[in-house]
Amino acid sequence: MKWRNLLAGALALTLVLVPADARRKPKVEPKIKVSCVGNSITYGMRLDDRERESYPAQLQALLGDRYEVGNFGKSGATLLRHGHRPYFEQEEFRQAMDFAGDIVVIHLGINDTDPRNWPHFRDEFVGDYLALIDSLRSVNPKARFLIARMTPIGSHHARFISGTKTWHGQIQKEIETVADVAGAELIDFYEPLYRYPWLFPDAVHPDAEGAGILAKTVYQGITGDYGGLRVSPMFSDHMVLPREKDFLIRGMADAREKVTVTVDGEVFDAVANNRGQWCVLVPQRPAKVGAELRIETAKSSLVYRDVAFGDIWLCSGQSNMEFEVRQSSDAAPRPDAGLRLYDMKCNWRTDNVAWPASALDSVNHLQYFAPTRWMPASDAAIARFSAVGYAFGQMLRDSLQVPIGLICNAVGGSTAESWIDRETLETRYPAILSDWLHNDLIMEWARGRAEKNLSNRPASVDGYGVVPTRHPYEPCYNFEAGILPMDHYPITGVIWYQGESNAERVEVHEELFPLLVDSWRNYFSQDGRSGSAMTTTVIPGLTPYVIPGSTGNLPFYYVQLSSLNRTSWPIFRDSQRRLLDSRPGLGMAVTSDLGDPTDVHYRQKRPVGERLALQALEKHYGHAVKADGPLAKEAAEVGPDVYVDFYPQDALRSADGGPIVGFEVQDAADGHFHPVAAEVSGGLVRLDCAAIRAPKAVRYAWQPYTRANLVNVAGLPASTFRLPVR
Q: Between the CA atoms of 426, 429, 432 and 435, what dihedral angle is there, to the nearest 10 degrees?
């Protein structure tokens, strides 16, 4: 019996020593259920393995075991209850109701762009969407709703021009209304994918990579994890911020995270919205160097030293803007700590070579420009910077005595259309987006060079025969790869040297150039809005700051093409002259007295930069300088002669002191242009037309490589022109 008592005591002791928690079953936390409601994009149509590649499947992998993600996508489903396949009537809707998600993500509306739906039932959209939310909320009153702005529809969609593009935009606005009325969180499936049309082989359904971007977007919306504090890569030590005007500093942080911005000792606070976006309005500051900028959250901080307040000019275009100081024949480099340079070099030059496959993948992902940072103008930094840009900045520094920042973002051979944002081209010139490598609206030389660079691309993608052909000559590309990353940086103005790669498509360029100006003016306007260049949607939770005067006519000064033996150049130069009237706030530097008969890259770039600087000094800064050479106003027949009037009203003369040359008059009797003698008479130019029976038109400097020599009192050359004789 004794041993039994000992055993009982030992067992009792064991029970006492075992913790009570070990004797209970572990508590299992219920999984958070995420309902993904949508159409074929949610379902994962066209994907090779939708069970792993659809966005809900990839979202499950991101969220982990604490969550249960349900895919309730129905191919072809419409949000509209009177649409051709209402989501309300589908089995997937009933499954979503039974699932009763704690978080509901809705992406519907794409199929409502069908002409069977939107034209007839558009007024029912908001009510039907709210009814869907109410139905799903009825089975889980505490559910959290995230509704998505729709994914893009590519311009290669068959109905894109006939209405789909317009209706898509209208539905986006209605979705934003729904989010506001329903108290739902708005997430964005549009912007993260808009720059990557090749991720949509059939123009509607994203591939696996695109679905991964959607999954990441939902993950960020659910968790608020946007990767912490981030700002534009434009921010670095030695950066230049605006002087004497209000400006915005914006960036990203985790959702609802407080951000503190300290500008030269003055503190500003912001809170990131549900999409991680924040911005602060900084009041105007005087010109200065040596300031400090701090941007901080509770978890991290960014500190930028030797910040200057001054004027920032973007120097862009193609190879003659890219042309470096060390290559020029007339540079006068002078180190200057008050001149700051931000030089965006290309990772791959557009020389006549085939790019390797690794380059093609990077280019497709818009990784064309190498990382860089602001640098004071040292000898080394100046040598590799744009010669035109440097001469421009140096003259502004000497004239204004304030800090000047220059951003060079130029690509050799690039087309005008490559610098225009996608929304502008889709809306106002969509024809140029179609099959761009075989599109006759784009100059043949540019298409041929791009074909050479891209010759190592694969034959097809996902069986659709769609090949990513992203290239810096492609419409929209340089805007998306080189302008969007600037994140609305508060520039003062633009100098632009481009046109060589559009000179054989004069009429096309006349359409494109005003679109380029509008595109950049819209994008760089400092109005606190977000999204693509043309988006006008104010982000919920982000103060819609509007800075007086910031949305007006951003100064845009461009270079007229120089002299070169290419037959299309005279008419192109004249077209550039006429484009001066296409928008307010433009200026043109004439360079027909420069150039080389056989080399498009002439080496004397200092006069070009200085003529652009004169444009800025007179037209933007109000200095008493002469910026324009003689611009032809009208031509009139008076007796046996023709008189040409010019503006501005300046003293006219020949550049070399000899006879004025370069004028021709067309004789209606034979249709030909004939050289005529010219002289200055009473502020006009008199053309001796004694040998012309019926003067019909006058032209000047019409040879591709011209020796025309009319200048004004400041020595600035007259523009190429053609005018009728009245």
A: 40
